[in-house]
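Need residues for this backbone.
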């Protein structure tokens, strides 16, 4: 998700009047743990991402429709309810301010990130737009979630089971 996320974060900074500073930089990495199979998992992730980005987008629309329909998952064949409940994620963002202070911000949720968590996040954004209009930003146009609903989501997401925390590092 680094490709879209980096652009969304930089756009948010610009939309918020460079609230993070004009020299703000953002990058993403993914950890696959430290087990003996971690190097293999990392290589597989890197290879599949490179293939998808490099070849998939360029040639996917040229594949015969029947082949795509045969290979693609069928509607309703996603993970079981048990698998959706057992999944989880934790995202940590490390930052160093211009004064040298260091922080880690974390976002975590129980539930499969690709199904359950995405549904919760989208649902809370929709509810914020529908029911919290007076508390939303007065900005208009093509906005990022933070620029449009940032403060409202800081209240809504924890109430929906999303853990948000920030810790100063020494």
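Answer:
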């Amino acid at each position: 998700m680094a490709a879209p996320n980096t652009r969304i974060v930089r756009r948010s900074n610009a939309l918020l009047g460079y609230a993070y500073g004009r020299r703000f930089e953002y990058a993403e990495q993914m950890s696959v743990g430290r087990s003996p199979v971690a190097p293999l998992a990392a290589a597989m992730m890197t290879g599949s991402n490179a293939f998808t980005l490099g070849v998939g987008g360029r040639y996917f629309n040229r594949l015969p429709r029947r082949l795509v329909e045969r290979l693609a998952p069928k509607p309703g064949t996603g993970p079981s309810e048990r698998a959706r409940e057992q999944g989880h994620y934790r995202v940590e963002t490390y930052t160093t301010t211009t004064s040298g202070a260091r922080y880690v911000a974390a976002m975590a949720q129980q539930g499969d990130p690709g199904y359950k968590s995405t549904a919760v996040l989208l649902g809370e954004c929709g509810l914020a737009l529908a029911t919290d209009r007076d508390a939303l930003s007065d900005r208009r146009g093509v906005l990022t979630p933070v620029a449009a609903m940032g403060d409202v989501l800081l209240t809504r997401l924890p109430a929906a089971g999303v853990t948000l925390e920030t810790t100063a590092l020494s």
